[in-house]
Design a protein that fits this description.
- The structure holds 2 protein chains of 2 kinds.
- Chain A is an alpha+beta fold.
- Helix content of chain A is 30%, strand content 18%.
- In chain A, a hairpin with a 2-residue loop joins strand 5 and strand 6.
- Chain A is globular, with a radius of gyration of 19 Å.
- Chain B has one domain: Alpha-Beta Plaits (2-Layer Sandwich), CATH 3.30.70.20.
- Helix content of chain B is 17%, strand content 19%.
- The longest helix of chain B is centred in the N-terminal third of the chain and has 5 residues.
- Chain B starts with 7 loop residues before the first strand and ends with a strand.
- Classes of the chains: A alpha+beta, B alpha+beta.
- At the A-B interface, helix 2 and helix 5 of A face strand 2 of B.
């Protein structure tokens, strides 16, 4: 059980716990209180990460570590911890969540200047907040597209086929959406892999296991892995998955043409059960 | 311990005024070093991508820069310098 489950799971997987859908994320504002605005970043950067990377480039690794630790702790305090989810679990979320609306991805907008429309929205907003998306035209640039349960599943499958990793977004215990992510576009994956922020993004509750009798060594999984966890092991001419680098997204499993990879419960492997 | 020489990326903001509309450097960078953000936000109004200065370009992940200069070449207004 991951740290978020301990806090928000009520004995089950936190993202399947109905208590974590909707509610306090969209509380009514007390009368007379001004709405909280999206705050634009200060001119010239000014964010913690800007300062951390600047320090790293200047050779001040202590400041770099202090600032990234501060950011990482902030994710735990505010409960803004995302989690990697395999496709099957995303389907279960789609059954529970309502409403669901496809929307543009904020990370891709920032890192690649990418603009998406109804034909290629890659992020999914979940919860009643989606009903008032017009209030944040900057965040929901280009609008949103409301999806039924089946449409959501088809949409998830579409991105899974492309090799995208699914990530469920947690806003202090309230589920805000599912995004389809890759490296380096996804800011959260980058925070964890490149800047060592281990709390902002948590591994899934599953790990892949390879059946070497079925693996043909075709390399499809190597190509699909966004975490650099899979190699083609030349010696045995099969795939080799390093579970300590693996995030359990299951994209290798869904892409394997011979069905050689299966996802098993993380808790079933004693060495992996506390690796998040 | 030897500290690597990280290239410094200078962005001339008097020349780079509409980075989100242009986005050439954002898309070409092999290491995805750049980050574009709206810095002027008005409630209930979408930020105008063609308004000079509404969006700003940052070389946020500059510790990943390899100094390949592809952004410098692709920049239509000659606003970028990579100093190695």
């Amino acid at each position: 059980m991951c740290g978020v489950c301990e806090k928000r799971g009520d004995g089950m997987l936190w993202y399947l716990n109905p208590n974590n859908y909707g509610r306090s994320m969209y509380k009514m504002r007390p009368p007379g209180e001004k709405p909280v605005m999206e705050t634009p970043p200060a001119e010239g950067g000014g964010g913690l990460l800007d300062a951390a990377i600047e320090a790293k480039c200047e050779g001040d690794l202590e400041t770099f570590r202090t600032l990234t630790k501060q950011m990482d702790d902030g994710f735990v305090t505010s409960g803004h911890q995302c989690s990697i989810l395999p496709l099957e679990d995303c389907y279960q979320v789609a059954e529970l969540a309502s409403p669901m609306a496809a929307m543009h991805c904020i990370c891709r907008k920032r890192t690649r200047g990418r603009e998406e429309d109804e034909s290629n929205y890659s992020c999914l907003g979940i919860g009643t907040g989606m009903l008032k998306w017009e209030r944040w035209p900057e965040r929901y640039k280009g609008g949103v597209k409301f999806l039924s349960i089946q449409e959501t599943k088809d949409w998830l499958k579409y991105w899974d086929d492309k090799g995208m990793v699914h990530m469920i977004m947690n806003y202090g215990g309230q589920i805000g959406g599912i995004c389809n992510c890759d490296y380096p576009d996804c800011i959260m994956i980058r925070y964890r892999l490149d800047y060592g922020m281990d709390q902002c993004l948590i591994r899934s509750h599953y790990v892949p296991v390879v059946d070497y009798d079925l693996c043909t060594g075709c390399g499809t999984c190597v190509q699909r892995c966004q975490f650099g966890a899979i190699k083609f092991e030349i010696t045995i001419e099969k795939t080799n998955i390093d579970l300590y680098r693996c995030f359990g997204c299951g994209v290798c499993e869904t892409g394997c043409p011979t069905g050689a990879i299966t996802l098993v419960d993380r808790a079933s492997l004693p060495g992996m059960k506390n690796v998040w | 311990m030897v500290i690597p020489m990280y290239p410094k990326i200078e962005i001339d903001r008097s020349k780079c005024t509409v980075p989100f509309d242009c986005k050439r450097c954002l898309q070409i960078c092999p290491q995805a070093v750049f980050d574009v953000r709206p810095i002027k936000m008005t409630r209930l109004v979408e930020t105008d991508r063609k308004e000079p200065g509404a969006y700003q370009l940052f070389a946020l992940y500059r510790d990943k820069c390899t100094g390949c200069d592809q952004c410098v070449v692709v920049c239509p207004v000659d606003a970028l310098r990579v100093i190695c």
